[in-house]
Amino acid sequence: MKTWIHFTLNGSPVSIETDNDRTLLKLLREDLHITSLKNSCNVGECGACTILLDGEAVRSCLLLAVMVDGKRVDTLESLGSPVNMHPIQKAYLEVGAVQCGFCTPGMILATKALLDKNPNPTREEARLALSGNLCRCTGYKKILDAVLLAAKWMRGED
Amino acid sequence: MLGDRLQKYEGIAAVTGRLQYVDDIMLPGMLTMKGLHSTEAHARIRAIHMEEALAMPGVACILTWKDLHQNRWGYCGESYVLAEDCVQYVGQPILVVAAVDEDTALDAIERIRVDYEPLPAVFNPYEAMKDEVKATDKPSNWFKFFGTDDVRKIRRGDIEEAFDQSKWVFEDEFISQFQAHVSLETHVAVSTFDETGTLLVYSCAQGIDWVHSTLSQTLGLPMEAVRVRGGLLGGGFGGKADAGPEVLAALATLRTGKPCKWRWSMHEELRMPVKRGAFNLICKTGVSENGKILARHIRTNQDCGAYCYRGNKSIDRHGCAATGPYYIPTYWYDGRVIHTNKVPAAALRGFAVPPGSLASEVSMDRVARRIGIDPLKFRMENALRDGDPNANGQAMYGTGIMACLEALQPYWEEPYERNPGPHLFRGRGLGTALMPNGLTGGGSPITGDVKLMLNGLVSISMGLTEMGQGLKTVMRQLAAEVLALPEDRITVLNADTSAVPAAASPGASQATYINGNALLPALQQVREMLIRHGAEHFQVPEDKIILADGVISVSGEDRSISYAALAGLLAGQGITLMATSSYKSAYKKLDENGLGEPYEVYAYAACMCQVLIDEETGQMTVERIISAVDCGKAYNPMMVEGQIEGGAIMNMGMATMESVYPGYPERHHMVDNLNEYAVPTTMDAPDVESIIIEVPCPTGPMGAKGPSEVASAMIAPAVANAVGDAIGIYPTKTPITAEDVYWLLQKRGAEDKE
């Protein structure tokens, strides 16, 4: 069975007919060709498919596409482009928080969700906020460094 | 320049979501592939019923082993692309379906029925060693190394005499587990045809050169009829060294004429080759009255699953590294590989070195404590020094282990609270590692090309694939240093078999070392050309020429010319500034006693781990990891730290939680997905404190060698030793789960009562 859904994707309205059992991950990647979010474990453990749903970091592999009807979906494309990077993106680069880069989109969105709610998190709060996103390359230290540096920059401190 | 914390070459694309991994390639009309995997550990396949699936609309083709030109492949020639009349482990691929979309492919797989005749299976390596139940159709479960020998030996000195002369002799048995890489990007391949009509395969393999030759062999095509492109991996760690889904994706494209994608789900990824195999080893060490190690005998059996992918190589590497970074005057080693009905094993970050480090280092701690020497002092007393022989009798140079141990000393001597609360016990442990860099047998030759282009950019082509570790970035830094121009004017090409001289696989921590060694002479030649042509242009002696920031100037004068302008002038004379150079690691074949020079270079590291244990539950927290790693020369300290930190946490996973067969070796349940296979998260991982040690490597490019695996291989023993320190009884198996710690505590309680 198919259903028409209407939602906001990265600031623009989208109307699309989708199978009722299609996950949001598949809709975004395969139907709408938003490839910044990644397909990895598909069971909500790794966080590579993280998106922002009305500002909350959620796993798109665990959501049915029909569940986002009427809501706001943001992916990494909404943050900044190479010519206009968001402070979080700059901070990840600055401290070397990117190795293979596969977890990076999900990590950055989880960071965004945290900093929008808590502009001055402690390291332990950052740890908790990113605990649903796996990274196999970095050991997380530089990712946590990036979160705190981005927070500092976004508060206007140097 | 060398030593700068330069940002990653591909970094901006990564943080803005613009990196296009293989799974992000979506081509018009592309077919989706799915595999059918064995549900049996050992069975004969009586029949496969696929008529219904073949008749389904949307199913383009179903491929079995009969469709391949050659089904056997791999370094030992033991592996199968697809199972033939037998399956020998759960998860073994039997066939693949290519269909218009994923749902159709999955539906087709569900409608295929395999008629199995179950055969006796053997999971437990100790059972397999009895050779009663055969895991495969070979006459023995013991792997035969190149013919008839089923054991790799090292015999250096008279071991019985040395143990007789020892004041103390200690023997312990250790066992490690099957560990999975869990690259977040699972294996994926896309095949299509390029602009010339040549078969083009996009691969996420580390060694696209190996993929290229495997495709040629298994499909029966000449090398020129296949092109492989890659160089963007979402993690590798050794799991993507060889070909994975490429062969069947390519075959499906040849069969249907359509682009095809085969991506393994994480469930499949955990069940498909390869993993790090399990090691069972007995470590016997003899020590003199004054605390010097006199002798060691290591006896290892590696459980490599059903087929030997590279188990033969790992067993040599293991024997070489199981001495640890110590001078051991008499050393014997017996290494065997055993087959069981489990997923085939090969390399995972450090290959066979971490299990050897586990045995060596836990033995070191137990010995030190039993004879009453401080564990750090005991290690320093026995540390390798320049000129000392390693396991194989090779003289070692650039030995940084002493510097690593000295760097740890202040941390080791810091006081700490051993009993911070009720039921809570804190402990500290040391670990070290010796890691051979480079492939066993010297590996294949590698070429690097350097060219100054007319636009003033320098183009580098290099053999090894970038796998996320930052190889392109550090090679830019090396080029910038030699050629005296900013990194952003250096472009790096790799991982296209039609365009770039490919070479082996970035593995065994060799990438910076051999790629740098291949490029450095070419870079130096181009530098000399810039000086020579600059001197001719300005009509001055060569020693008056200064190269800086992409500009050639004359010392003490106002005259200068940019590299681009010089390139333009020279082009008018038919001259291009370019050079190419090659490298192959030296290697001296091991003799019948296992003596020789198996690797060109070795890296060293030492660490301290601190754990907190709740005696009530056995729950362990790794509170601190301090790692001192000798990388010879840190081209990019930020990236070296990244390797140290990431390597540490990956091996902490081996130490504390990861297992493809939880309960190995007694149980043979196989994990389903990441819900069962735990890897460290932000909540498990402490902030690793990195100490970079730079003892110049005599044969390294600008003194460099690889830090990535040596930084990893030492963590598990340090965790085990910290547990031993905290509770007074040492774990001898990995992973050390809360359950294991709990039972160790019960055992200790029982011993106390006696």
Q: What report would you give on this structure?
A:
The complex is a heterodimer of chains A (158) and B (754). By secondary structure, chain A is α+β, with helices and mostly antiparallel strands. Chain A has two domains: 77 residues, Roll (Ubiquitin-like (UB roll)); 68 residues, [2Fe-2S]-binding domain (DNA polymerase, domain 1, Orthogonal Bundle). Chain A is 33% helix and 17% strand. Chain A starts with a strand and ends with a helix. The mean pLDDT of chain A is 97. With 754 residues, chain B is α+β, with helices and mostly antiparallel strands. In chain B, 28% of the residues lie in helices and 24% in strands. In chain B, helix 6 packs across helix 7, helix 13 runs parallel beside helix 14 and helix 16 crosses helix 18. Chain B is globular. Chains A and B meet through helix 2, helix 3, helix 4 and helix 5 of A and helix 1 and helix 16 of B.
Task: Lay out the secondary structure.
The complex is a heterodimer of chains A (158) and B (754).
Chain A: E1 2-9, E2 12-19, H1 24-31, E3 50-53, E4 56-59, E5 72-74, H2 87-95, H3 104-117, H4 123-129, H5 141-154
Parallel strand pairs in A: 1-5
Antiparallel strand pairs in A: 1-2, 3-4, 3-5
Helix pairs in contact in A: 2-5
Chain B: H1 11-15, E1 31-37, E2 43-49, H2 51-54, E3 59-63, E4 72-73, E5 79-80, E6 86-87, E7 93-99, H3 102-110, E8 113-118, H4 125-129, E9 152-156, H5 159-165, E10 168-175, E11 188-193, E12 199-203, H6 208-219, E13 226-229, H7 246-256, E14 260-263, H8 266-271, E15 275-276, E16 278-287, E17 293-303, H9 311-321, E18 330-338, E19 345-346, H10 353-371, H11 375-382, H12 401-413, E20 424-437, E21 446-452, E22 458-462, H13 471-483, E23 490-493, H14 511-538, E24 545-548, E25 551-554, E26 560-562, H15 563-572, E27 578-583, E28 601-614, E29 620-630, H16 637-656, E30 689-693, H17 710-713, H18 715-727, H19 738-753
Parallel strand pairs in B: 1-14, 12-13, 15-19, 17-18, 22-23, 29-30
Antiparallel strand pairs in B: 1-7, 2-6, 2-8, 3-7, 4-5, 9-18, 10-16, 11-12, 11-14, 16-17, 20-28, 21-22, 21-27, 24-25, 25-26, 28-29
